[in-house]
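Hello,

I think I submitted the pyridoxal-5'-phosphate job twice by accident. Can you confirm which output corresponds to this input? Input:
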Amino acid sequence: MKQSKIPHRFYLTEDQMPKQWYNLRADMKEQPEPMLNPATGKPAQAEDLYPVFCEKLAKQEMDGKTRYIDIPEEVQEMYKIYRPSPLVRAYQLERALGTPAKIYYKFEGNNTSGSHKLNSAIAQAYYAKEEGLKGLTTETGAGQWGTALSEACAYFDIPLTVYMVKTSYEQKPFRKTIMQTFDADVIPSPSMTTNAGRAILETNPNTSGSLGCAISEAVEKAVTTEGHRYVLGSVLNQVLLHQSIIGLETKQAMELLGEYPDIVIGCAGGGSNLGGLIAPFMQDKLMGKADPEILAIEPVSCPSFTRGKYAYDFCDTGKITPMAKMYTLGCGFIPSADHAGGLRYHGMSPILSKLYHDGYMKAKSVAQTKVFEVANLFAKYETILPAPESAHAILGAVEEALRCKETGEEKTILFGLTGTGYFDMTAYASYKDGSMKDYIPTDEDLQKGFDALPQI
Ligand SMILES: *Cc1c(COP(=O)(O)O)cnc(C)c1O
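Support: Only one job matched these inputs. Its output is below.
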């Protein structure tokens, strides 16, 4: 039977866009372990989270039962500015690799933040507005989250303070400028504006900063400033919920094309894009309707899934956030300064951690020189300059496609192309001039992080 030719880029219509998010927890056989209140050591209740998070978001965080949650109209309206995002058939990449496999990717880089992070930023800014809050605080590493939230806060007219990891602040000054363009107040972290920042600077004045440390500062600022709350762009259950829009659109588009993936691949930092992309496919798997392989790709320099421990840990270096059970390298873990592109968080989404632990998905770690090699290849054939984070997923897909070339399997491969890499040219340059190094932490390096895990 002759198959009708699948378009290079496929878009749902606005009418076909999802009107509800999908909450994967509702279909999990066993729930992720509950968050613990660090003060009491007992499972945190939604009320425990109110000083830190908006009420609606705290409720979403704790809700393991409601399968579908309505996307507020205002959020749908802002989604329509840059969504639906295209599902792309990577014909040129397939040809370059000479693979019999079909490669699809969902491209989330078509907005100013250059990443999928806007999907959750909009939801979080909207609920803050609805609750009448006076301001939000957050942290940003590579800068995509801070930019996304700045866009969303500007749209809903809410003041925003962003603690930006100091290395990024210095290496990516234009990221800072974009956030300022959207009226955000950007502070390099660690800073003297919080107790957490001052304490870290006292013991380690030359620190380049870390995400965990920036989180501590942002949380402290929120809980000590009247009418302010903290928002986070990854890891949390609520963020995976909002990101389910990626997977829902993808699955629907593939259905309309008569396709279904044999394998779904995503890069994993805190797990939000991966959790969002795989959500409806994992649902099929949990319900026994289909059995796609699910694969997370992470850097060898920050290997939470592949070398981390499944244990309770703090979500931040300052140890003020609730504790979550997740794959973690220890909240004090800071990846080597040689590590170029994102995906540097010490922990992993508790939802994905549980699914991984229970054998529903696999993970693999890759070296960054390989990642940039494939990023260059992808840019040439697909004409999108990928974010280094996204290129981890590309590498996973390319390796799978090359395996199909050997075996002759005509697999359908789907991966998440989370964003663009225009602000990562220093890393691209160090790949080109050969100075980029691969750093693999030793067992002793990692042990330091594990030794500091809270004793639960
Ligand atoms: C933040 C980011 C990631 C990693 O975060 P997850 O929560 O693991 O999805 C991946 N790609 C891009 C472009 C990002 O901005």
